[in-house]
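Field reference: sequence -> structure
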Amino acid sequence: MRNTAVQLIALLLCWLPGIGQSEVVLKGKTSSMVTAVVTRTNNLFVTDEGGGWYENGLIMVQMGGLGSAYEVEAPLRITSTSGKFHVRIDSSLVLQHVSKPALVFRNVVVKMGPRGEALKLLAVAQNTTFTNPAASANGDDSIGHYLLTVSALPPSGDFKSTGGNYTGVLSLTFEPVLE
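Structure field:
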């Protein structure tokens, strides 16, 4: 009897690996096709010619005589993936005396355009479209060199009563045009 019990246990031990493993049957879809498309981000970088920005602001100068407009020019470098972009003024530029707020510059004009070409007038809440030159190689961003100008007449009155420091904020929005 003991011999039969040992044989039975040996037989059961031989079956354990077979009992523990069972066949797995997959039903339905067993493979998938996965496709990935990697697209480059659409860049639009606006910097000064050196790749930075005008951290200290810009200083307007009166090149003509008394009563002539004060002016400033700001060279811009615009790097764009699409090559085309809009620019608009967010709110009117107010150049105001720092200690006499009633004194403000008149007839403020903001223009922009490619260097060496005619400048376009920029307006509040109105898009003006610009196009960079073609990129140097296929797949590269295009780079355009532009000039931003601001001119304004000083407040009415004599120099003694209107002289001093004036300040203002020019807020522009640059947006890529995707086609």
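Note: Helices lie at 2-20, 159-162.
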